[in-house]
């Protein structure tokens, strides 16, 4: 609900995933990832922010998804960063998976503050 330091969904280590069921099927066009800015971080860094990640569209939560793009969250960039769908896709999805491959160096955990999916209704 807010962007205060620590009000995130944290997972152990630098690799993890999040699966989201949307309210309706959409044709994804972009994704946004948001993390707190360094200026709000108690230690002055955002090493717990995701670094390398990919987004997949799924027909159901038990399948291997269709790759929609691979991205890097820029720790020096704006707190809210938008990433367009990179892979040509003609399918609509109601389930989207965010797979994080690395963070910016935090040895214990990775924090996700906000992840949004943008698109056109199917």
From TrEMBL:
Keywords: Coiled coil, Membrane, Transmembrane, Transmembrane helix. The keyword Oxidoreductase does not apply. It is found in: Nucleus inner membrane. GO terms for cellular component: meiotic nuclear membrane microtubule tethering complex; nuclear inner membrane. GO terms for molecular function: protein-membrane adaptor activity. It comes from Nyctibius bracteatus. Transmembrane segments: none annotated. It is a single-pass type II membrane protein. Coiled coil: none annotated. The lineage of its organism: Eukaryota, Metazoa, Chordata, Craniata, Vertebrata. Pfam families: Sad1_UNC. Residues 1-122 form the SUN domain. This is SUN1 protein. Gene3D superfamilies: Galactose-binding domain-like (2.60.120.260).
């Amino acid at each position: 609900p807010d962007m205060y330091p620590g009000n995130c969904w944290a997972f152990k280590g630098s690799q993890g995933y999040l699966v989201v069921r949307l309210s309706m099927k959409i044709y994804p066009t972009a994704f946004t990832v948001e993390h707190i800015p360094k200026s709000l971080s108690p230690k002055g860094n955002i090493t717990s922010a995701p670094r390398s990640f990919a987004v997949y569209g799924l027909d159901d939560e038990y399948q291997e998804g269709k790759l929609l793009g691979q991205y890097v969250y820029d720790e020096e960039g704006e707190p809210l960063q938008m990433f367009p769908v990179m892979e040509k896709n003609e399918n609509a999805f109601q389930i989207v998976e965010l797979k994080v491959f690395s963070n910016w160096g935090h040895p214990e955990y990775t924090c996700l503050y906000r992840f949004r999916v943008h698109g056109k209704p199917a």
